[in-house]
Amino acid sequence: MNIVLGVGGGIAAYKSALLLRLFTEAGHQVTVIPTDASTKFVGVATWEALSGRPVTNDVFDAVDQVNHVRIGHEADLIVVAPATADLLAKAAGGHANDLLTTTLLMARGPVLFAPAMHTEMWQHASTVANVATLRSRGVQVLDPAVGRLTGPDTGPGRLPEPEAIFAAAMALFSGDSAPSVPVPSATVPVTDDVESPAAAAPEAPAAEAPATGAPATGALAGVRVLITAGGTREPLDPVRYLGNKSSGKQGVALAEAALAAGASVTLIHAPMEVPAPAGATIQRIETALELRSATLAAAATADVVIMAAAVADFRPASISSGKIKKRDNVDDPVITLVRNPDILLEVVAHRAAQNQQQLIVGFAAETGDDQGDARSYAEQKLRRKGCDLLVVNEVGPGDSGAERVFGQDTNQVEILSLDGASPVQSGGSKREVADAVVHLIAQRLSTG
């Protein structure tokens, strides 16, 4: 496949070198077209060495080959990463003042933009309108990731990881990518170093789910599903963090099951032991505060929210700028913790405030004690949180002493309903559990 890789002028351009390597190692021929500004971050020599092809952005180079026409005509796929706010504006406005913008105008195949920019730029009305314009023309614009940006600030705007862009590009070329959706006026999650718009799927009624068994393909056709996964990490110093045992396996299984049922899936994930699935819009985060920002923004346009991430309840009150040293004759450090926000509770409250028709699913990893069993604690949590469904699993060592849930390939859950419906039991592989959850969601949507 002939791929054109356009590189915008943002600090995230270095990640595009990794994306180029993924394309070439998969056997594709890649022509890199950097903007002039991007060469201040990554030089032409790097692109030529990694692609094995000459690199230019001057329409007057190789005039005899009419590059500004030929390259776009010959491209099977064009990927722009990072796509800055300026590049999105030029593409939406049909500008043609360099080799990259003229190539975009000549494109005959699919085009994918991976935005990266600061949050304010991503959420500016001009960028929102430009993204909506591009999507209305059939161009795929990925959502940016949420996380640390250039400087001390954090928010939506980071470039998605190269692996996620590669997966989206391959899915787009094969025709398997999920449809893009309009961006809400002022809330768009970002993740990396530069700019990108949020996607959503067009409104469509949920197809009726079968009465029994795993959901049939199309049971969630047209439904926008937001899933959180993985375990958040709260930094103590540059090398240490507070975390948990979550592997992300159940969250990824849920994303795969929702995709198989025809949903448009956004997966916001903390660190995981498994790769994110192809076909989903991916946003990577680290901390609970980053997860909160990304989730509240993405939930604004979601029909279903599944909160499967293991969120740290507390974070250090302060983060040491240097590694905390272990020294003799010095008292051990005392770490003060502060409470993290309750993201699930906020999502439920936001739904009520906006009068949204939205199904919200929570997850609870519970243990019993002398005051009650795991079920009783989960029922209290369900009433306190106010979500529609709560997927409960009892964690900790099993009879054999081995961990029952975290990091395992199997799971045993009970799904409780706020409306008092009988609990649903499911067990087996984490994909089987995910199919059961998605099937129940499809039933709920089909019955209104």
**Fourth-level CATH superfamily of the largest domain:** CoaB-like
Classify the beta-strand content into a percent band. 15-25%
Largest sheet: 8 strands, mixed
Helix/strand class? alpha/beta
CATH architecture label of the largest domain: 3-Layer(aba) Sandwich
Radius of gyration: 23 Å
CATH-assigned fold name of the largest domain: Rossmann fold
CATH C-level of the largest domain: Alpha Beta
Terminus-to-terminus distance: 45 Å
| Widest sheet: strand ordering | 12-11-8-13-16-17-18-19
Low-confidence stretches: 176-217
Roughly how much helix do the residues carry, as a percent range?
A: 25-40%
- Round the mean pLDDT to the nearest integer and report it: 83
Q: What is the total tally of β strands?
A: 19
Number of domains: 2
Dominant shape: globular
Question: Tally the helices: what do you get?
Answer: 13
Domain Flavoprotein: 1-168
Keywords: Decarboxylase, Flavoprotein, FMN, Ligase, Lyase, Magnesium, Metal-binding, Multifunctional enzyme
Cofactor: Mg(2+); FMN
GO biological process, one term: coenzyme A biosynthetic process
